[in-house]
Amino acid sequence: MFSSSVDVLVADLSAIEVDEDLLSVPELGRALSFGSPVLLSEYLAVHTWLRRRLAEYLHVPAADIRFAKGEYGKPAIVSPATDLTFNLAYSGSTVALVVGFRKDVGVDVAAITGDVVEPAVLSRSLSAREKMSVLVADDVERAYLQQWVRKESLAKAQGFGVDPDMEATDLSGTSPLVASGYEITDINLGDGVVAAVATPQGTPINLSIVVSEPAPVTDLRYPAIEDRFSRVMAAVGG
To answer: Structurally, how many domains does the chain consist of?
Structure first.
């Protein structure tokens, strides 16, 4: 893909077959930290899928990829040596990955749950124009979440976890929008989810929906993950 464009890959979490053997010790430790079996399963599926997709670009075994986090927690590939960049997001049953080459990129997704959006939430995170556009929308929750993922995708492209001055950044209007040298584009993934991607201004976007065979139903994965984590730690003397 090493070109001027970026790829946006999207998949359904329920269609990902988990392979914990692909994950690193830090990833396994993180997985075990979740108190909820649902969160554990989601994390394993997302990171299995991430490694498989990146391995296709890097032409290395998925288990050999190593990551490190930047100052604000944004992950990057440190092995193998590469100029490939990526960003990952998931919510509900949707996982999205944006992949670029020598480009700062960001993506965010949010599942629509039917929750009521409180006015105080709007004031903390939206500009005055954004707040007005949300309040007059037919679907307030969807309109609010669309603004949220726009802002989050931009903050992630810039390397921030969350924009500390989120309400001052106005991304109201029709997609694509331009801010701080980035183009923020809404991604249409259907009724149940909203998504946006931030790329350097003028970058073409290739959208792919990754379809997989449904994963087999398995029991709660704590014993298998704990066993692998213990075996790996023993092997490295931990």
So the answer is: 2
In whole angstroms, give the CA distance from residue 115 to residue 92. 14
Q: Domain of 158: which CATH number?
A: 3.90.470.20
Range(s) of the domain holding residue 135: 104-202
Residue pLDDT, tens place only, 149-176: 999 999 999 987 666 667 788 899 999 9
Instruction: Give Rg (Cα) of the chain.
Output: 19
Could you tell me if 147 and 141 are in contact, meaning their C-beta atoms sit under 8 angstroms apart? no
Contacts of 21 (CB under 8 A, 6+ apart): 63, 228
Residue 221 pLDDT > 80: no
- Average pLDDT for residues 72-84, to the nearest whole number? 92
State yes or no: cis peptide before 200, omega within 30 of 0.
no
CA distance 87 to 107: 6
How much is the pTM?
0.87
Nearest CA-CA partner of 195 in 150, 227, 163: 150
> Is the separation of the CB atoms in 171 and 184 below 8 Å?
yes
